[in-house]
Amino acid sequence: MKKVLLLVGGCLLLVSSTIAQTVSQRLQKAFQQFEADSQLKHAISSLYVIDAKTGEVVFDKNSQIGLAPASTQKIITSVTAFELLGKDYRYKTELGYTGKIENGSIDGNLVLIGNCDPTFGSWRWATTKPDTIFKNFSQSLIKLNIDFIKNSYDYGILHFEDQNIPNGWIWQDVGNYYGAGASALNWRENQFEILLESGSSIGDSVKVVKTNPTLENFSVFSEVKSAAKGTGDNAYAYLPIGLTGIIVRGTIPANEKRFPISATIPYPVSQFSGELFASLLINHRISFGFNKQQYTSVLNGNVIKLRTDYKDIYTHYSPSLDSIIYWFNKKSVNLYGEALIKTFAYEKQGFGSTDSGVAIVKKFWKEKGLDPDELNMADGSGLSPLNRVTTHAQVEILKYAKTKDWFQYFYNSLPLYNGMVMKSGTISDVKGFCGYHKAKDGREYIFSFLVNNYNGKTSAAVNKMYTVLNELK
User: Are 38 and 121 contained in the same domain?
Assistant: First the structure.
């Protein structure tokens, strides 16, 4: 009987080995064809595939070469967040006051302590929408019978660095919605909508119709031109140094009346100040001993560096981390990654900064057995072209995630492309995919595929990458 069992077991191992060899051979052939394509003539590519159950290496090409990962880097930040913060972690934003309350009046200042919550004012959850937050803030004041605030507004940034944008981000990105950096107080995901109206002829000027919301202490200037019908959105927002305005350049199609593009809110503190001022005054009849311009002047100071003498009124809590990660990966929200990186540093060291957060990520994975030099990271989202990560490190992190009790929450956050559960990444001349796939034969794979410096259209490169990955099906 033992001999029979050994024989059966040996046959199963032989079949498994044969299948593995076949998949490896197919990948080898497909990858060779991929690299020989003229679009990859000056590119460097890396593909690393393992068996999800056994850890056996199925295919390896350049897995120890650090490449720009673009948004596939978000899987590193996501998995680290689940481990360091926990799936139930919630950000909190505190409303308080200084001085005393007498006869319905605060004789001091309102105080807002931000803790880098990237969802504060987001439209993605009912509890985080601006109207809900304003309602909760006003009701907390009304419960204390407050109808007058004598002085101004203080913002607490004790625990986070002043620099919103990570080093290495490029100018073309930081003015646009996907280039919004993270600060102690984030608002509306630090982005706003610009509605543009184009002319009837190619080359006509394009004017700004309005912004949503209306900007506080900031302007938008258009240098956009009208282009041929069907050319799409080729307009980019720029933040010129030293100017209090955004310049939009590029083209949009002719004959558009309200063409929307999204840009960065450069000063979320000021934006929140103005909107809250209006909400309290107009909707809730709470008056002030100062005007709106003074109220939004926090850009020029009036920011708490150290404050211990305020009293709490209300605490707003963000959605839980598992929900934040869902949108972080599903919609590739760069702001969330930058907030998370700073939050790692804040929670572990008491002060949130990008550089400290990156160091904590590298230290964590070194303790798990990864060479920290495989994670040459500059940010939390992958937007920086300075990032260099190996496909080996990404696959090891994805493999680690499968062993954790929170794995399903992470898995559910990954998009579906080409019939495969994987995170994509795109920056200039960079494309990547990494994730999980279960083949028709039941075998499961974990993979990372990065390509840097391809030429031509991204869509063409993507289709060629899919052809390689299809060998896992």
Answer: no
Distance CA 169, CA 139 (A): 40
CATH number of the structural domain spanning residue 272:
3.50.80.20
Residue type, position 116, single letter: C
Answer yes or no: do 158 and 291 share one domain.
yes
CA dihedral 331, 336, 337, 342 (to 10 degrees): 180
Assigned domain for 235 exists: yes
Report the 3 state secondary structure along 264-296: ECCCHHHHHHHHHHHHHHHHCCCEECCCHHHHC
Show pLDDT as tens, one digit a residue, over the chain (473 residues): 444 444 444 444 444 444 556 999 999 999 999 999 999 999 999 999 999 999 999 999 999 999 999 999 999 999 999 999 999 999 999 998 888 898 889 888 888 888 999 999 999 999 999 999 999 999 999 999 988 887 766 666 668 898 999 999 999 999 999 999 999 999 999 999 999 999 999 999 999 999 999 998 889 999 999 999 999 999 999 987 766 789 999 999 999 999 999 999 988 988 998 898 888 888 778 887 766 665 555 443 344 544 557 889 999 999 999 999 999 999 999 999 999 999 999 999 999 999 999 999 999 999 999 999 999 999 999 999 999 999 999 999 999 999 999 999 999 999 999 999 999 999 999 999 999 999 999 999 999 999 999 999 999 999 999 999 999 99
Please indicate, yes or no, whether the overall pTM of this predicted structure exceeds 0.85. Answer: yes
**Collapsing DSSP states into helix, strand and coil, what is residue 2?**
helix
Domain boundaries, position 220 = 188-264
What's the number of domains the chain is made of? 3
The residues with which 427 forms a beta bridge, in sequence order, are: 430
Q: Are residues 306 and 339 in the same domain?
A: no
- For residue 44, what is the domain's CATH number? 3.40.710.10
Same domain, 139 and 155: yes
Closest CA to 89 of 111, 116, 108: 116
Q: How far separated are the first and last CA of the chain, in Å rounded?
A: 37
What are the DSSP calls for 301-342, one per residue? Answer: S-EESS----EEEEEEEPPPHHHHHHHHHHTT-HHHHHHHHH
Secondary element (H or E) of residue 80: helix 74-84
**Cα 317 versus chain centre, distance:** 19
Q: Which amino acid is at 240?
A: P
Integer Cα distance of 183 and 179 in angstroms: 13
Tell me what the pLDDT averaged over the chain comes to.
91
Q: What is the CA radius of gyration of the chain?
A: 26
Q: For residues 303 and 288, is the Cβ–Cβ distance under 8 A?
A: no
Pair (424, 342) in one structural domain? yes
Q: Which 3 state secondary structure label does DSSP give 245?
A: strand
Residues 341, 183 contacting (CB under 8 angstroms): no
